[in-house]
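BUG: 3D viewer hangs when loading the predicted structure for this chain

Environment: internal workstation, default settings.
Expected: structure renders.
Actual: progress bar stalls at 90%.

Input used:
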Amino acid sequence: MPAKLNADRARSALRTSALLSAQTLLVLAASYVALWLLGKAWSVIWPVVVALLLTTLTWPVTKLLRNRLRFPPALAAATVTILFLAVAAGIIVLIAVPVAGQSGQLADGVVDGIQRLRDWASGPPLNIGDDDITKAFDAAIAQIQSRAGSIVNVTLGTVTTVVNGVITTVLALFLMFFFLKDGPKFLPWLSRQLPGRLAVDIPVVTQRGWDTLGAFVRSQAFVGLLDAVFIGLGLWAVGVPLVLPLAVLTFVSAFVPIVGAVFAGFVAVLIALVSNGLTDALIVLAIILAVQQLEGNVFQPIVQSRGLGLHAAVILLVVTLGSSLAGIVGSLLAVPVAAVIAVVWGYIREQLSDHPPAPSTEPEPEPELPDDPVQPGEPKPAT
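Structure tokens produced before the viewer hung:
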């Protein structure tokens, strides 16, 4: 009898394991299909994602115009969109004008730096003479000529990327305008389209996801501002030119994780090298590395963990995973995607744990007695 009971338990456990395995495989297959469809429609989804990020950044101003100043929705959206374009153009001008004004000095610094590097290479221990440099130059030209086809393909690919980027930007701006204008109407419309309990659950999750996305954009802007201030102060202390454009470039590039920081740091070190020399360039490199280490390991995890409800270690792991899976785009979207998943899971957990409260263990208070209680066996007083 016990042997038969154990066999029945084993078969039951085996059936449960098989059912769970089949369900897991089904979920994985559905996830694969969803990701495949996402990749096929990425040319449309990516502008929507950019527009949502821009909308979360500009929505507080739109809300102020609509609620406090009583702007019509279309006028408020148009005003904010125009202001955003003006600010973006101002940032470009703020970077381009000082650089153009000091382009001659920078060009002279580049030439001087190349000459100093050449003089250093010609001495010990390298002892590279002019003939060696000429041979290396000729070999480089021959290598470039032999790979002309590859260079053309890379150039065409770069041009295609730039064109796609311009199209994405224009489409994202138009979508941002419509999101700002009609955004508050979306959740009521969505509730009317969904049946049953979904008419309540989906809008609630969407609203929480929107709040989480706004927290991500604000925290990223705050971290970029910290980077710009600290690196700008370091460049000013060293005496590097173009401090303000470099600080603005650092702030803007903070919205593109990893690559943006590397690009801004490379530009700052290069300008320090060609204008102040190797020593100041190394000092600037040390400042940038220190600030970026603080930003990546301290500032960003702490700020985003508070705003998004994610632990700092989770943020570090999801950024690493996103960058390994999808490069720059993956690292940019890793944190908000993880935060939205946490929002959905938190709401599901709330619904699953929605049960009547457990009985209290505290003793119930005794009922208050009247001022002149009637004792058992005594007649009631006549009224």
